Amino acid sequence: MVHGVMPVPSDPTAPRPRLTRERVLGCALGVADAGGIASLTIRSLAAELGVKPMSVYHHVANKEAILDGIVDLVFAEMELVPHHADGSWRDQVVLRARATRHALRRHPWAMGLLESRGTPGPATLRHEEETIRILREAGFSVEMTAHASALLDSFVCGFAVQEAARHFGVTSTMPNDERGDSSPVDPETYPHLAEMAEKHMLRPGYDFGEEFQLGLDLILGALNRAAHAGHLPPS
Amino acid sequence: MVHGVMPVPSDPTAPRPRLTRERVLGCALGVADAGGIASLTIRSLAAELGVKPMSVYHHVANKEAILDGIVDLVFAEMELVPHHADGSWRDQVVLRARATRHALRRHPWAMGLLESRGTPGPATLRHEEETIRILREAGFSVEMTAHASALLDSFVCGFAVQEAARHFGVTSTMPNDERGDSSPVDPETYPHLAEMAEKHMLRPGYDFGEEFQLGLDLILGALNRAAHAGHLPPS
DNA sequence: CCACTCTACCGTACTAAGTACGAGTCGGCT
DNA sequence: AGCCGACTCGTACTTAGTACGGTAGAGTGG
């Protein structure tokens, strides 16, 4: 044998460029995206990396650390938008909100993990810092910034949850043309839900995602008004 | 022996009143609340029920069904508020939003489960039906109802996520009086976040929960205005 | 050039958890 | 009495996390 060390070197140049924490976390994110968070196991991850399970433990403490890591990777993904410091605060908030939503859409499991993780990673903190910075530098008071960021974060996170859990009820495209009585949404039991589904969602051009911009605009308009009034008016 | 069947009948009246699906799910909810969703295993559940693991499988198909079941139980908990059909639509929405938030606060793991569950249970559907009913009967158009419910649900869900994942950064009450450089929030790196923490949160009387009513009021005010205008104005 | 050692990787094996399979148990009904 | 169906459980297989110790190869000082 000329270089008889690697068992089956399909490519002489190392097909395994060495394991690092970054490679482990990046691959973990890929596995979670591909097959859902439940499919991310130490063994599946190791297989994807081309190593044996116990090898990953030299780069992460345990699976919890991996979950913390990929959640922070998702937040890091949100930072890739240009800062656009020249735009108005509304434009800046909209840009960040869109980036956040898109990242959470690419990784629907991320919101589900947030609850279990106690300590946020650096990217997560930078994300919060940035939101607060935009509002503060726009002239919002400390209190108003707290209210605004809580409201905006809640909306963006909640929207992501809705999108992740989105279920399409009613008969929809399912080929049960003969009265599916076990249909998810029974018009008898849930008349308004059925009406909403029939007359609005389920329509050819309907896209739930458009509700994001609508809701965001409404919140921003109200925040703008509240900021000018110096408080949060009752109506 | 008088009734020599039960091996160790510490109490002659059956200490195990028979297993039912309701008892299984109710107990599962209790276990999840007590020790977190991760502590809910078939074995821990069986132990709590006073039976052997395999016994629960005669009342639920598998663990997935248990998770579906307790999520629906949480939604069922939200229905316990009086309907107050005589109040204004705003009052009705506020009442329901508060009930939703409180239920999600009692069961912080619920939001994390939503993502994985594809098919909503009956209580979940009733919950959505009720929200839509309130808005429709208040005179909202179908489109406007869709926008409003998406916005409201997003806010309430998102707020619940924030509360569940709430972390208290900065040095706070931790006794690291000698420059905790590994402190969760470093004022050098996150100046605005640190300012926000120091000057607003972390204050004696601060309660993040109050942001809920504030945000809800702001959204409702904006919805009210948008409904009167017949559309969603840009500001 | 040779130990010595540190780093990265891996083999083995233990534990916990989900659950398939089939057997035992018990109350009621024919 | 004998059968039946609903309920419970014992056993055991499988997957997953990971503790523990081994090993190989790259340095490093003598």
General form of chain A = flat
Give the averaged pLDDT of chain A, no decimals: 86
Helix/strand structural class of chain A:
mainly alpha
Biggest interface reads: A-B, 73 and 73 residues
Helix content of chain A: 55-70%
SSE succession of chain A: HHHHHHHHH
Rg over CA atoms of chain A: 23 Å
Show unreliable segments of chain A: 1-14, 168-182
Number of helices of chain A: 9
Quaternary organisation of the protein chains: homodimer
Largest sheet of chain A: none
Tell me the number of strands of chain A: 0
**Amino- and carboxy-terminal Cα gap of chain A:** 82 Å
Question: How much strand of chain A?
Answer: under 5%
What are the main properties of this structure?
disordered N terminus, homodimer, 56% helix, mainly alpha, flat, DNA-binding, 235 residues
Write the layout of secondary structure elements.
The structure is a homodimer of 235-residue chains.
Chain A: H1 21-35, H2 42-49, H3 63-78, H4 89-106, H5 110-114, H6 122-137, H7 142-165, H8 191-199, H9 210-229
Helix pairs in contact in A: 1-2, 1-3, 3-4, 3-6, 4-6, 4-7, 6-7, 7-9
Chain A binds a DNA duplex (30 and 30 nucleotides) through residues 5, 18-19, 41-43, 51-55, 57-59, 62-63.
